[in-house]
Design goal:
Blueprint lengths: L1 E5 L6 H9 L9 E5 L3 H14 L8 E5 L2 H5 L4 E4 L5 H14 L9 H25 L4 E4 L4 H12 L3 E3 L3 H12 L8 E7 L2 E9 L2 E2 L1 H5 L2 H4 L3 H6 L1 H7 L2 E2 L4 H4 L1 H10 L4 H15 L7 H14 L3 H7 L14 H14 L3 E8 L12 E9 L2 E4 L7 H23 L2 H10 L6 H14 L10
Parallel strand pairs: 1-2, 1-4, 2-3, 4-5, 5-6
Antiparallel strand pairs: 7-8, 8-9, 8-10, 11-12, 12-13
Length: 448
């Protein structure tokens, strides 16, 4: 079977390939095609994968191409992890938003909207090529903003595109460990949108262990979300929020921390990856070791500004271990290709799961996965405060899709202005103008 990785020169590709190396049996991936617009990055990643596969005669064969049609033609699975505008685009998104005093994070608030406006037209074009050249392929989307991009691609591919994220996996794993449960067997009652969800229960043997966590102040403050949000706030919510909700619940503090930081996250990653790819140009260098060292630094500094704002110590060692989205992607592909039924938290079309949203709205919930795809599991309604955020942000996503489809500047302004983390229509208008001036990819916003 063939897997095509879009964004194949991207830094996380070896995580996916490493997961494939550990997979065996019938129906496994035997060929991996890396696609990227940057041939130099492709060459660097191919070197890392070659070292990963050393001594493994059964390792999936790797090919590289800068031709999208060649990459997707006849493929069985597509893993999409593209970054439209590169890390320079992310840096600009952060800088422009912070200059207006609003959040520039790549998936949340103004930065996420700007990134979505750049990415959706490209993702839609890719979806159309997949539909034409590999109509039976399944698309696993990791491209951010993951929920928005998955919904955009679903308008072409229907339920054959499924979004994945490692945040719910990490959250469930941390809470299970604190409660002494096996993360592999615990059922996570998790619901929301991508980067906007809540863990409302953790069931083992039919019993919900989460109330015991809220009753134990020491345990509640011992893991990352407990330290980020504080035990009192978690008890008030009666749920454990996805870490990205820190941007909403502590917006002033996080914006100030990002403004005061020596450099933004995007700037850090841009400089770090520039060093990595430059070092990879030197022949004879240990590619896999260099990649692992760079990855460790990247993971250790994840959400550093938020932890600074909350007064949280460095990330726990167990949170630096791999086993996130790449394992979700592998489990998803195995379930579809081999009918190995499993349960995963995924981004899929609503289909009546949350009554406050329409059928086609992409949400993030537990799903039963089999050869027929991912089927969302029925969940209890969200409480009022969560319903308000979910419906508000989904409305923003719909305005992004409208702007991307019609080229309407007013729809883009509306997307920014309606977001809970953008506090002024005037700010929204200035953001649209500043992003259009910065990003050639937003030149399509020509209509009123």
């Amino acid at each position: 079977m063939k897997l095509t990785i879009l964004g194949g020169g991207g830094f996380r590709v070896p995580l996916v390939y490493g997961a494939l190396l550990g997979d065996g049996g019938q129906g496994r991936i035997t060929d991996v095609c890396l696609y990227d617009v940057d041939a130099g990055r492709l060459g660097a990643m191919a070197r890392v994968l070659e070292e990963q596969a050393a001594g493994r005669p059964d390792a999936p064969r790797v090919s590289v191409t800068t031709d999208l049609d060649e990459a997707v033609r006849g493929t069985d699975f597509v893993f999409s992890a593209i970054r439209v505008g590169g890390l320079e685009g992310r840096v600009a998104d952060e800088r422009i938003a912070l200059a207006e005093g609003v959040l520039g994070q790549e998936t949340v608030g103004a930065g996420g909207i700007a990134y979505g406006l750049r990415t959706v037209p490209v993702a839609m074009g890719i979806a159309r090529r997949i539909a034409a050249l590999a109509p039976e392929a399944w698309v696993v989307n990791f491209t951010n903003p993951a929920g928005l991009v998955t919904e955009a691609m679903s308008r072409v591919l229907g339920d054959r595109v499924i979004g994945i994220c490692d945040s719910p996996v990490g959250l469930g794993r941390r809470v299970a460990r604190v409660l002494g449960a096996d993360p592999a067997t615990a059922w996570a009652d998790y619901v929301g949108l991508n980067h906007l969800g809540w863990l409302r229960g953790l069931r083992v043997g039919g019993r919900d262990l989460l109330p015991g966590l809220f009753a134990d102040p020491e345990a509640l403050g011992s893991f990352e979300e407990g330290m980020l949000f504080g035990a009192d706030w978690l008890r008030s919510l009666g749920a454990v929020p996805n870490e990205y909700l820190h941007y909403y619940y502590f917006n002033r503090e996080t914006v100030r921390a990002h403004q005061e930081a020596k450099q933004t996250r995007g700037a850090f990653l841009r400089d770090q990856q520039a060093r990595f790819y430059e070092e990879m140009k030197r022949p004879g260098r240990p590619a896999l070791a260099i990649w692992r060292r760079t990855l460790a630094e990247r993971e250790a500094t994840y959400m550093a500004a938020n932890r600074e704002a909350a007064g949280v110590r460095e990330r726990a060692e167990e949170d630096l271990e791999p086993g996130g989205y790449e394992q979700v992607a592998l489990a998803l592909m195995r379930a579809v290709a081999r009918d190995e039924r499993t349960t995963l938290i995924l981004n899929v079309r609503n289909r009546g799961t949350l009554s406050v949203l329409d059928e086609d709205a992409v949400i993030e919930v537990p799903c039963l996965v089999d050869a027929g795809g991912a089927h969302p599991v029925g969940v209890d309604p969200l409480p009022g405060h969560a319903t308000g955020l979910v419906t508000s942000v989904k409305s923003v996503e719909r305005e992004v899709l409208e702007a991307a489809g019609s080229g309407s500047r007013s729809a883009a302004v509306k997307a920014f202005a309606l977001h809970p983390l953008v506090d002024s229509v005037s700010v929204a208008r200035r953001l649209v103008d500043a992003y259009r001036a910065e990003h050639p990819g937003l030149a399509y916003l020509r209509r009123p």
